[in-house]
Amino acid sequence: MCRLSLKPFHSDGVADTDMIDLHTVATPNGHKISIMLEEVALPYKVIPYNIFEGDQFTPEFLALNPNNKLPVIVDNDPLDGGEPITGFETGAILIYLADKTGRFLSTEARARYQAIQWVMWQMSGLGPMHGQAHHFIRYAPEDIENRYAHDRYLAEAGRLLKVMESRLAEEEYLAGDYSIADMACWPWVRATALIDISLDAMPNIRRWFENIKARPAVEVGSNIINDFRKRIVNSDKVPLTSEQWSVLFGER
Ligand SMILES: N[C@@H](CCC(=O)N[C@@H](CS)C(=O)NCC(=O)O)C(=O)O
């Protein structure tokens, strides 16, 4: 169902139209949405961005997301038949796609709020705290001030995993049934290997992780444009040149 656009959006516009255009990067946030698109089997086209070169700051992209972050979707065939709908923020995109397809988010009020609650938890906790842990472990210069932040975010990343571990001791998936809440969290749990957090002492997360990993849609969706990322950065651990670091973390 996925097609890779060979033409970056900013160079020449999107040439042809699929139902969904997915402007994205090979990161946990990007993979949340490619996993969902694979799960619901909507036709979509991937438009890869090189955020190390500043693709996210072009006027064309800022018109889609003034917050200059990936991923973004453009739904060229919205349910109301109107103009294309653009969406940013992965939690909102997941809810949008679930509502559009009627899948992976219950319409029954209690179950729906359970799932949305865990999506919000991911968006406000697991994602940002793990994101900061990745920053201070993998990208920030080593010095004493950064050591404080490094330890702080690593501890918080671990605490949030313990919350998840307790929840998954009670339920098979975060909201009972497999839902967008699991799709929001799974790519971030996969990325814990990059910040040297072991899941060995978390048997319920491990069981949940392996069950989701075995899903064919997750296999495809969580690998979307990984090859593109490998071409633009050197390695997972110390990936950035000073120019790339400045584009991504310098003041803009
Ligand atoms: N809360 C946002 C986070 C998105 C985000 O941080 N995206 C990163 C890639 S994972 C990005 O686009 N970074 C580019 C930049 O910061 O300039 C979401 O869930 O969509």
Observed structural traits:
252 residues, alpha/beta, Glutaredoxin, Glutathione S-transferase Yfyf (Class Pi), Chain A, domain 2, five-stranded mixed β-sheet, globular, binds glutathione
First-last Cα distance: 36 Å
Structural class: alpha/beta
Radius of gyration: 18 Å
Can you list the strand order of the major beta sheet?
1-3-2-4-5
- List the bound ligands: glutathione
Helix content: 40-55%
Principal-axis shape equals globular
Number of helices: 11
Overall tally of domains: 2
Supply the CATH class of the largest domain.
Alpha Beta
SSE order, one letter for each helix or strand:
EHEHEHEEHHHHHHHH
Strand content: 5-15%
Q: Output mean pLDDT.
A: 91
What is the CATH architecture descriptor of the largest domain?
3-Layer(aba) Sandwich
Fourth CATH level, the homologous superfamily of the largest domain:
Glutaredoxin
Note poorly predicted spans.
6-15
SSE map:
Layout: E1 2-4, H1 9-12, E2 20-24, H2 28-40, E3 44-48, H3 59-64, E4 72-75, E5 85-88, H4 90-101, H5 109-139, H6 144-170, H7 180-190, H8 203-213, H9 216-221, H10 226-232, H11 242-249
Parallel strand pairs: 1-3, 2-3
Antiparallel strand pairs: 2-4, 4-5
Helix pairs in contact: 2-4, 2-7, 5-6, 5-7, 6-8
The structure holds glutathione.
Glutathione (GSH) binds next to loops.
